[in-house]
Amino acid sequence: MPLDTTALRQTAIGATLRSCQLFSGLPSADVDAIASFALLRTVGKDAYLFREGSPSEGFYLVQQGAINVHRVSPAGKEQVIHVFRPGETFAEAALAGDRGYPADARAVESSTVVVLPKGPFLALLRNRPDLAIRMLGSMSTHLRVVVGLVDDLTLKDVETRFLNWLLKHRRPGSVAVELGRTKRVLAAELGTSSETLSRTFARLRDAGLVDIRGSTVRLKDSTGIETRFRRLLGEA
């Protein structure tokens, strides 16, 4: 008996939807309805999912891989807004208007995304106000990410921004922070170059504050890191 590829695809999409906070807890019938019109798309490493200003086809959920959403300044400088990973949605705001996507989206690694097409999803929202409220919550979360990014970029130098990043990503009771991205991507998030970030790593390592091996940063002196960060802010 031949495999029903449509049914397999919908099952895979349904499982991905249930893994996402936006859709978790929805009745099975609703998840199945969304899976019936959702699409799977593969994006090769460094390939673009969409460009700033391109017409919105809908929004996206990362199934595997990582998607770098960023803006490019008139001078050609790239500023990463956020790197979205499995279980995260993005570009929901593009559902609300016809101005196209407000940023670029590029795969950091070979990725697969679930595409939630605009037309059928908006039709579903009209009948499911509870899902519309969830969407507002998701967009609010993205707004907080952008506000946090603006706050971080006002910090005066790369070292201050990196120490701030470390302190934000440190887990209670742990002395290790996983970068979870390449040095190039982290540098772009911090608004600097890979070379400058490498020099910052070396300076902190020579000061006995961190030890960096591969994608793991070990905090050798958490108190010293906090003190150095406050001093850079002019608070100590």
Key words describing this protein structure:
single chain; 236 residues; alpha+beta; Jelly Rolls; Arc Repressor Mutant, subunit A; 2 domains; 4-stranded antiparallel sheet; 8 helices; 11 strands; 43% helix
Q: Can you lay out the helices and strands and say which pair or pack?
A:
Layout: H1 5-18, H2 28-37, E1 39-43, E2 48-50, E3 58-64, E4 67-72, E5 78-84, E6 89-90, E7 104-107, E8 111-117, H3 118-127, H4 129-153, H5 158-169, E9 176-178, H6 183-189, H7 194-206, E10 210-213, E11 216-219, H8 222-232
Antiparallel strand pairs: 1-8, 2-7, 3-6, 3-8, 4-5, 4-7, 9-11, 10-11
Helix pairs in contact: 1-2, 5-8, 6-7
Question: Can you characterise this structure?
Answer:
- This protein has 236 residues and is α+β, with helices and mostly antiparallel strands.
- 43% of the residues lie in helices and 22% in strands.
- It has eight helices and eleven strands.
- Strand 4 (67-72) and strand 5 form a beta hairpin.
- The relative contact order is 0.12.
- The mean pLDDT is 82.
Strand order of the largest sheet: 1-8-3-6
CATH class of the largest domain reads Mainly Beta
* Main pleated sheet: 4 strands, antiparallel
Total domains? 2
State the separation between the terminal residues, measured CA to CA.
72 Å
User: How large a portion of the residues is in β-strands, by DSSP E?
Assistant: 15-25%
CATH topology of the largest domain: Jelly Rolls
Helical amount among residues, as a percent range?
40-55%
The chain-level structural class is: alpha+beta
User: Rough shape?
Assistant: elongated
Radius of gyration: 20 Å
Mean pLDDT, as a whole number? 82
Strand tally: 11
Helix and strand string, N-terminal first? HHEEEEEEEEHHHEHHEEH
> CATH superfamily name of the largest domain?
Jelly Rolls
Q: Tell me what the CATH architecture of the largest domain is.
A: Sandwich
Low-pLDDT regions? none
- Count of DSSP helices? 8
